[in-house]
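Lay summary

Proteins are chains of building blocks that fold into shapes. Our project writes down both the chain and a compact code for its shape. Here are two examples, one after the other.
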Amino acid sequence: MLYILFGNQSLMINNRLTKLVKERLETVDAFNYVRFDGRETLIQDIIYECTLIPLGYERKAVVVDNAYFLTKGGDKEKLDKEQDYKCLIAYLKTPNEQSDLFLCVENPTIDDKSEIVKIIKQNGTIFELADISKDNWPEYVRRYFEKLETKIDADAVTELVIRVQGDANTFVSEANKLALYTNHVRLEDVLLFIERPLEENAFAISNALIKGKNDVALSIFRDLLVQNEEPVRLISLLSNQFRLMSEALYLYSLGLSNNSIATQLGVNEYRVKLAVDARRSISYEKLLLYLDKLYKLDYNIKSGQMDRFYAFEMFIADF
């Protein structure tokens, strides 16, 4: 059998792959299960493996990770000039009935016009493994902790979802870490053990500055320095926050509701609410002024006129 497995989340691909392999093979070991990296292995070597008869077994599985040749455009790997795609196409038309070939690629789409994809559509099976939707994440988290026989509070679920930012691999790693620590995960456990994403830290810095809590903003920045975060990245993210706030305030001044603004800007309505509430502390004109200051700060740092750490600290202190 021929299979293509693709999607954004490697965890979803591997889960489906594991299930399929178990269905196809009675036992799995080094003699009937072979795995290649498509970026490092020639296609002709993979096909040669597919043609070999499994010793002592009725069937074998050949898995190709990073099958980049299934995707549209993009940069080809260094190996591409040496790849024998005609060999692959010929094999796909008459595959070894004792071998299952699994082509896996972590990408949201594959090239439907590719001859390889067309042949597998006719002779095999294609699995598109969708991401966990934003609305389904809380339920996914709760069910995963149930499997770990660990209780998790509702506010801890919400915070954990925010901190893993839709990355299933990161979630599994962090969830297992929390379950090892306690059998009842509370919000304080998530805050203690799971790092806040850089974007969330930038949001926290901007929120603190708007509220006049420069000391809080400075404390967050210094914590990030311990994690080797670059001020230039923070300047970019902070600019994005101020730009979002200025756009939200402008649309609010036109009479749009928070929900309409959120839809138009493609952001969470809670972010819009905070931006609109911030009008009591900072004006639309002041936001534009600080956006200009961030632009100049970025230029001065990149042109070598200012030390990046000192310059960013001074921006926070003088806000």
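And here is the second example, written the same way.
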Amino acid sequence: MIKYTLIVLIFAASLASCSNKKTSEQNDKTVPAEDALPNIVLNYANIVHASYSDSLELAKSMMTKIQSFLESPTEKGFEEAKESWINSRFPYLQTEVYRFYGGPIDDEDGPEGLLNAWPMDEAYVDYVKESPESGIINNTKDYPEITKDLLISLNEKEGEENISCGYHAVEFLLWGQDFNANGPGNRPFTDYTTAANADRRKKFLMVTVDLLIENLESLVNDWAPDQKNYRESFVNSQPKDSFQKILVGMTLLSGFELAGERILVAYESKAQEDEHSCFSDTTHNDAIYDIIGIKNVWTGKYTRADGSVIDGPGVRDFGSSVDAELTEKIDTSLSSALKKSMEVPRPFDQAILAEEGSATSKSIISLIEELESTADSFVVMAEKSGVKVSREPEE
């Protein structure tokens, strides 16, 4: 498996090479090369399928590690299970740019809420410091048997924070609440051996992981080539319609979701509960790899988990024919946003507590502003391309 830290270097290098491309001859073009759009849409579909496939494979690796731990719980096995969760997130975070336009991930029947819903009320799932008997796991009267159907029915029931499924439910079951200013949560592995309801906790964890894998499999199938599925309709639709959806995903992830919901909300509330991956203290990865996901679509290039590369026409290629200067501006913004996301001090839950006006506070604000600027540029690019994209999601 590729060392995902290397992707950051690949990303920076790819954007640098993009900004150095010759654009003088493109400045004279007044009519965009719309005949290039079908190939851009097709390459996008290839990247979507590959990144969901990678997400599925690493989720299966996580399942193997968790199964091994649950069969013979040890401290070492618990740490390996946690590491496998972190690894499983790298490709999935790069898929979040495929959201917001009613695709398979978040249409009316889409599994996004079962995969990556947050923030979560920990007490809805298991014990918390103030309530040792709280949660579905400890409620044997109302929930005598933990099943997939039960967890699906309870997910976001009577409240958006009532999360019972997905990556963050698994994260909480591995790390527990985070009371450590300098690190993540420290759930003892004995929660799965001698603690109250240990067997139910084991069952909950495995059912959640099984469900996560099922939902990822559905997304892989939705985007698989040579099938009657969403991909087929996406690729065979009017190219501009699909191109508009691609730009919607890029714009809303950059501005509304990442800059706003995930970073600004937590910065303003100063609440650990509002950060994206609060139990494992890996929120910095969420920002970094979301930005890399945007870059994948922009450049048409995706580095797979095995190190192989999908490389074809991206949004940038069309953008260059529309407005070369704006294209270079977006190159610079994406490169800057990645750099700034890496410069925010870790862990993120301590960075948001920094005094206003401090270097740490300024680094967060600077990242938010760069992401919002990138989103604004995508809106302009869309307009110049003859499609409409908003900074806010449609109701």
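What can we say about the second shape? Confidence is low (pLDDT under 50) at residues 19-32.
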